Amino acid sequence: MAQSHRTFIRFLLNDRPVELSGFAPDLSLLDWLRINQRLTGTKEGCAEGDCGACTVLVGRLDNGILTYETINACIRFVGSLDATHVVTIEHLNRPDGALSAVQQAMVDNHGSQCGFCTPGIVASLHGLWLSDPEPTEADIERALQGNLCRCTGYEPIVKAAVAAAKTIPSEDNDRLVAGYATTIATLTDFADGARVTIDSERGTTFLPADVDDLADIYDANPDATIVAGSTDVGLWVTKHMREIAPVIFIGHLAGLQQISFDETGVTLGAGVSYTAARGALIAAFPQMAEIWDRIGGEQVRNMGTVGGNIANGSPIGDTPPPLIALDASVTLRKGKARRTLPLEAFFIEYGKQDRQQGEFVESIAIPALDEDAFFAVYKISKRRDEDISALCAAFHVTTDAQGLVVSARLAFGGMAGTPKRAPTAEAALIGQPWSWDTIQIARAALAEDFQPLSDWRASADYRMLSAQNLMIRFFLETCGAPVRIERHPALAEA
Amino acid sequence: MDAPAPRSKAEISGGAHTKREHDSAHKHVTGSADYIDDMPEPAGTLHGYLGLSDRAHAKITSLDLDAVRSADGVIAVLTAEDVPGANDISPSGRNDEPVLATGKVLFHGQPLFAVIAESRDQARRAAKRAIISYEDLPHAIDVRAAMDAGYRMVTEPMKLARGDVDAGLAAAPLRLKGDMRIGGQDHFYLEGHIAMAIPGEDDEVTVWSSTQHPSEVQHMVANALGTVSNAVTVQVRRMGGGFGGKETQSNQFAAIAAIAAKKLNRAVKLRPDRDDDMIITGKRHDFVVDYDVGYDETGRIHALDACFAARCGFSSDLSGPVTDRALFHADNCYFYENVRLVSKPMMTNTVSNTAFRGFGGPQGMLGGERVIEEIAYALGRDPLEIRKVNFYGGPGRDVTPYHQTVEDNIIERIVDDLETSSEYQTRRAEIIAFNQTSPVVRRGIALTPVKFGISFTATWFNQAGALVHVYQDGSIHLNHGGTEMGQGLNTKVAQVLAEEFQVDLDTIRITATTTGKVPNTSATAASSGTDLNGMAAANAAQQIKTRLIAFAAEKFHIPEDQVVFEPNHVRVGNELMPFGDFIKLAYLERVQLSAAGFYKTPDIHWDRASGKGRPFYYYAYGAAVSEVSIDTLTGEYQVDRVDVLHDAGRSLNPALDIGQIEGGFVQGMGWLTTEELWWDDKGRLRTHAPSTYKIPLASDRPKIFNVKLAEWAENRELTIRRSKAVGEPPFMLPISVLEALGMAVASIADYQVSPRLDAPATPERVLMAVERLKALAADDETSRI
Question: Angle of helix B735-746 relative to helix B361-379, nearest 10 degrees?
């Protein structure tokens, strides 16, 4: 049991503290802002975290450092906001009331037409402006991946982002910078390490005090929904109107946010967001850069977690194929008991994972690559960015001194009911020379491993053909041949 | 009065032909621009939600709504029986579109009932509780299936013919046939549909509606309520995007909100979730184009016979005029010596397709451009050469398939300028060289032209009104019949008015469009907003100015030509008066300072039955060069560079016009690349949210994007300050993207085989086209051995 206990949450909304209790576990930040607070600058465009019209900034303390990240208010639950600073469009102008650098640049460059996406775009660009003094075009595009605009074609918005960067954030021109010290003090005060329990007519919300407390609460409430980033659970509510109570929020738990990175590999706590994992993961596995920034938009990567991507067992999640190819393992915990199993064994069949009632994903361990191993991850989607995979493929091959294949782990998403390896194709590689001919045989063998489905993302034929062709791409790349289209080639190499 | 008058400032701020930001830009970026869902709700406002069919075609055998009625917060449940007037919102007058379905459902997602509850969440949850039984009927989802099933057409087809097409085909030295599938498109306006109805006295009701066509909503609401138009006021300040998706599709939401509001005597707001919005409302029509063309070795077309069949959905809606406009644009910039074009507006068991930027024109033009592309590959030539050979020319080669003479043709100059400025020829040669040595990545380039006809083809829609008030302090209030959906219409019309009165733009305020101020308006559509409403506003200003001039001439005993409107002043004889002082004086002398302006487009007429007339007042032109790269292993691609040269006449606001071109281009590119509508075998649309329906992102826009207006262009017709409409024409410029992708694919077979890339060219379609050409090239190789 935690040492102290609260029955309300508290956070900063723009320039004032808020205390809330008695709210439903599935109350979204967007509804609360628009309906309860009448802060209508933040818009609902899709209610599924894809269009970005509802983008707001959320500031949180991480080891004493205050960082503001963009998030989708439509799928962010109010219960997860304890000890944060929620910043809406109404608070993004300058302290003197004038337009911010981003806002002025948007006006000057004709970055708004209908204006409905604009508050979200301004919020995303404000987040970029605060965090990146010299954004490249690639950085700007990445910051805008989670924001749809149907009017402008984006050209003036990108120009506005470039123009805004000429102004340096300061206490004079930005409310967040001006309030930095007091915000840190307030949030430090708010983060008292208490367990929070909110009861409502619609069920109970829990915010565990720490990971041990989470284990206790989940053990006692095994039917609860664990919510980390809510980028999946949010849609259960907004699109399927599913009842999710009781809910246990874990996004705030420092004990699940550990990242360790050394020569043996990388270990990620289950609560580490895609954004937080990015640095260590790409340092250890540079090839992961190819997909990492293509998972959701920036807002989703700021909220969503690798642990959640695994725990929900989706056959089209983007992290399981590379993690399986890398032979990652997952540690599950129930009460005080822990067990670790290979990630590929965790996915049993569609909708079914090897997770007992009351058991939760605690961490993921990814062993380092051998120095001379071949490894690549590829994602095929209708639209390059912020799209769900038609197909995700990860290839990990090692060869011996004679150039014969010693080990092969070929893992695919989108090809079956679970993320899955290709045993026949792998067998066709083992013991063979790493050559064009071998790849052709393995490529053909892939047809034995999968019978993919046809759906709106791709036909079965396309899935199979492009999966096979990606093996060719992989082989050619291991030979040093440039075979891919790069939008920002110089940056991709850097 | 003897001293020389002071000089006024040389120019007003924000007059015609100047770059000005959107009048709401400041509010957009601060989140203070109010959309309907942001407005304060009247006390006691209720919220509606719609219950939808989950069958594509079926008889409703029972509709059990007890569980809906008993759900938390529910105040009322409405079905077709609760519609007090006509259960019809058919904009075509064919009585084929019910407010709420009864007896039968004709598409998956058709609204059957409406729940009204204390909160939107309650209404939405309650709607899921209905128990509906159906008796399934066979359904046809696409054009081919509908034809096979013998489905009817939703409206009369049209035929355009000139010359003798059969003889022309028979006599042509070369001939080819083919077909093309062209996908539809969801509007994906960022603000979904919404209506808020506020009941008034007697039979009165005010409806705030996200609509491009307030007058039609007014008419439909009155009709559904069983009352007359003067009881209904429809208002809209701005929409979060429309693109044609709010031309007729707002009627249903407005009618249901109004019916509920009158029944319950409380304000009712109705806003579907994004998924439901995409399921309930119509989209751009999918087409199947069958073509048969006769041509010669130079690539010149002798005869074209083509059929444009469209997926119209369950009702007529605007499918008649949409398929008509497809035929009107199948010629694009090309003269067809002998031609026969027919439309087939097919009924299908899908949502009723509707207006969307270009209104069938893009599909027609794309079919025409496919024919050009086919000829080019058949002859082994650059498609641009084939285009030039077929451009409209002087007498003898200047009559369209609808017998209108093309009098304002500037396409050759546009194309020549662009070909040079984009270094098209050099780059094409480089690309061909690159492709010879690149095993996986291939590149393509294409230059395609656009000629787009401006005017509603329903001639009576080409009218507009405006209401201008000048207040005693010299401030000006402007209303017109157009609606603001992001295009900057209000800004442009205000610029026109500023120019007329010679006052700074910020002197003028435009408020919400309302049927109470300007009646009998046309939809803000067909790119006509500025052309029509700008003229009407100018007319209103001229009426007021005429009165002011007469008053001043009389009062100061000077000739009328000595009363001159100068920047923010009026020169009266030798005296220069500030505009506000002059107006105050006029008020005290009892001059009427308000006027209703009117405009109707001259010189247009159209006889659909004979397929002859002058449906268009003028044409807008443009051209684009697009360069792309494709990955022949996966079909993935990117747009590397785009150069555009576009004709906006004498642009009223070059900044806003460039915005329309860039935005239209990227939207059109989305239509032709990643935006795919996908129905399953049950007739369910499965791409009904941004997670499954992929519009372009910032990282999809052309990597290099050079957009220029043809500075030398001027409308030869007397349009508002010689400008040209710019909303729709740029949408067709990205046909160059599709064709550049085609060229990259065609490199597989050394440009000897037409790539026949259908739209949308998703990575999957590109890869499959690559595979088709690889197989043909391999066969060819084998046959040589």
Answer: 30
Q: Is B59 an 8 Å CB contact of chain A?
A: no
A385: domain CATH number is 3.30.390.50
User: CATH code for B25-31+463-600?
Assistant: 3.30.365.10
**Which residues of chain A make contact with B21, given a CB cutoff of 8 A?**
107-108, 110
CA A156 to CA A138: how far, in whole Å?
Answer: 15
Alpha helices in B652-726 (DSSP H): 654-672
Q: By the 8 A CB rule, do B45 and B73 touch? A: no
Minimum mean pLDDT range among A301-315, A422-436, B582-596: A301-315
* Strands laid side by side in the B287-295 sheet: B159-162, B338-347, B301-313, B287-295, B174-182
Of residues A92, A114, A485, nearest to B486 (C-beta): A114
Of B275, B186, B132, the residue nearest A240 (C-alpha): B275
Residue-level pLDDT at B9: 62
On whether any CB of chain B is under 8 Å from the CB of A491, the answer is no
Instruction: Say which of B717, B728, B764, B771 is annotated catalytic.
Output: B728
Q: Which residues in chain A touch residue B662, judged by CB atoms under 8 angstroms apart?
A: 152-153, 155-156
The hierarchical CATH code for the domain B140-185+284-401 is 3.30.365.10
Say whether the ipTM exceeds 0.85. Answer: yes
Task: Give the residue-averaged pLDDT of A349-377.
Answer: 95
CB atoms inside a 10 Å sphere around CB B393: 12
Give yes or no for residue B775 having a pLDDT over 60. yes
Note the pLDDT tens digit of each residue in B463-487.
999 999 999 999 999 999 999 999 9
Domain topology for B410-456+610-785: Aldehyde Oxidoreductase; domain 4 (3.30.365)
Closest Cα to residue B691, out of A118, A52, A140, A154?
A52
Give B56's DSSP letter.
S
Share of chain B above pLDDT 90, in %: 98
Measure the CA–CA gap between A293 and A277, rounded to whole angstroms. 11
Name the CATH superfamily, with its identifier, for domain B45-138+187-280: Aldehyde oxidase/xanthine dehydrogenase, a/b hammerhead (3.90.1170.50)
Q: What is the pLDDT of residues B204-228, one digit of tens each?
A: 999 999 999 999 999 999 999 999 9
Residues A472 and A372 in one domain: yes
pTM of the shown model: 0.97
Q: Strand, coil or helix: what is A376? A: strand
